[in-house]
């Protein structure tokens, strides 16, 4: 039953993003260090969300790796005693 709710939530999010993208198609100017470009607003928003999610995921994975390494060191110390 939980997978069905997850599917419904994902479908609703995709529907909201689709409606949002249809509404926000006007171009905006994006200033880079080396120039400017015109992009549709929805691409700027979706790109920012994806980069933010990727960054948060990488930071979370690094923290999990550090905690696993600490846990292994603690387990080795208790085995030695």
UniProtKB/TrEMBL annotation:
InterPro entries: LapA_dom. It comes from the Bacteria. GO terms for cellular component: plasma membrane. The chain crosses the membrane at residues 41-62. Residues 24-74 form the Lipopolysaccharide assembly protein A domain. Keywords: Cell membrane, Membrane, Transmembrane, Transmembrane helix. PANTHER family: MEMBRANE PROTEIN (PTHR41335:SF1), MEMBRANE PROTEIN-RELATED (PTHR41335). This is Lipopolysaccharide assembly protein A domain-containing protein.
């Amino acid at each position: 039953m939980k997978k069905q709710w997850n599917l419904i939530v994902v479908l609703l999010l995709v529907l909201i993003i689709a409606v949002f993208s249809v509404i926000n198609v006007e171009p905006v100017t994006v200033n880079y260090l080396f120039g400017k470009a015109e992009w549709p607003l929805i691409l700027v928003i979706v790109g920012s969300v994806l980069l933010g999610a990727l960054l948060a995921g990488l930071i979370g994975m690094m923290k999990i790796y550090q905690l696993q390494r600490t846990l292994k060191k603690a387990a080795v110390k208790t085995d030695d005693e």
